[in-house]
Design brief:
Structural class: mainly alpha
Number of strands: 3
Distance between the termini: 36 Å
Number of helices: 16
Number of domains: 1
Radius of gyration: 20 Å
Length: 335
């Protein structure tokens, strides 16, 4: 594997320096939010298990309620474990690290929760679940929704990810392998990778995405397609599970979903440019395409049949099958 020219301490230092602290709330408000998230993360376990009909170990992947700075630190820690930087510090590596840190600082203001599948084995061998408290508090205020309902709703989605990866541990290794394949095939010293800030500031090509900076080869395209398919399944499944649980325990789930979807679609200006550049519009499509796939399969069969998709890399739907679920149903029923 070609070691990328990327200095991870520079990424951490830049990200921590640039990330804003979050919304201003009283100490009491902050304590209540953290306590709610810790409590709901536990409550969500039984709710998700009963709804998804997937058994997962309860205590293998720890849950952390974090601020934005800790989220940046955690992601640098995980990314550097996945893709170690060069031993010698270079100007190119420092610049690349600073660019990545700037991107992480921006992302740290948007992410509500994350199952950190690439966490170092010495820290969290089964992965770890991160709930970003300031972003959840900020989102519930902007959406004008009930804070208690919204916090549980977020925990249901993220707990579903914890269940997916702990019940089916092959998924972690699969995603690590795909990520490393992309790194092996990518020249991170190319000009586009070294000038992310310039690409954002320039904004001449509003259609540009970091995905466009990857080599246009058969191997890279196939890897991206596999990753997109499995992430569509994971994200769509989490959305479906959280909404199937919702009506039983969250009175305002319909309002939350409607306003949250409008928020996903409502980005304008520089925010939309950055999301496009980082490929986040692709992630939004994954939520919707994956959710449509899961709903179709559940409607045609049941949720137990859908769970067959998680058994191995071979049973995961292809990207074509995500878009046409009947093809996956036909393949699985004929197998």
């Amino acid at each position: 594997m070609t070691t990328p020219e990327l200095h991870w301490p520079a990424a951490a230092n830049t990200g921590i320096r640039l990330v804003p602290s979050g919304p201003r709330v009283s100490d009491d408000h902050a304590r209540r939010a953290v306590a709610d998230l810790q409590r709901f993360a536990v409550e969500a376990q039984d709710l998700v298990r009963e709804t998804a009909r997937i058994e997962a170990p309860a205590d293998t992947a720890p849950v952390y309620v974090v601020d934005r700075t800790r989220w940046v630190r955690a992601n640098v820690e995980s990314m550097s474990a996945l893709v170690p930087g060069p031993e010698e510090m270079t100007t190119t590596g420092m610049l690349a690290g600073a660019q990545v840190g700037a991107v992480l600082a921006w992302l740290a203001t948007k992410v509500l929760g994350q199952f950190d599948v690439f966490a170092p084995a010495s820290v969290a061998p089964e992965g770890r679940l991160l709930l970003v408290a300031p972003n959840i508090v900020q989102a519930e205020k902007k959406l004008g929704v009930d804070p208690t309902d919204f916090r549980l709703w977020v925990c249901l989605h993220e707990e579903t990810h914890r269940v997916q990866f702990t019940a089916f541990p092959w998924l972690r290794d699969h995603l690590r392998e795909q990520a490393r394949t992309v790194v092996e095939l990518t020249d991170t010293t190319a000009p586009g990778w070294q000038n992310l800030a310039g690409l954002i500031a320039n904004r001449k090509d509003r259609q540009l995405s970091l995905l466009d900076l990857l080599p246009d080869t058969v191997d890279v395209r196939a890897t991206i397609e596999r990753v997109t398919a499995v992430m569509s399944l994971l994200e769509g499944h989490a959305d479906v599970v959280m909404d199937r649980v919702g009506p039983r325990v969250i009175r305002s789930v319909g309002q939350i979903r409607a306003r949250f979807e409008a928020r996903r679609d409502g980005r304008i200006g520089l925010d939309r440019v950055i999301r496009r550049l980082l490929g986040m519009d692709v992630k939004l499509a994954q939520y919707r395409d994956g959710a449509n796939f899961c709903r179709h399969v559940i409607s045609a069969k049941d949720i137990d049949f859908l769970n067959l998709a998680f058994e191995s890399a071979e049973t995961v739907p292809t990207l074509a099958e995500i878009h046409e679920p009947r093809k996956w149903l036909t393949r699985m029923m004929s197998g």
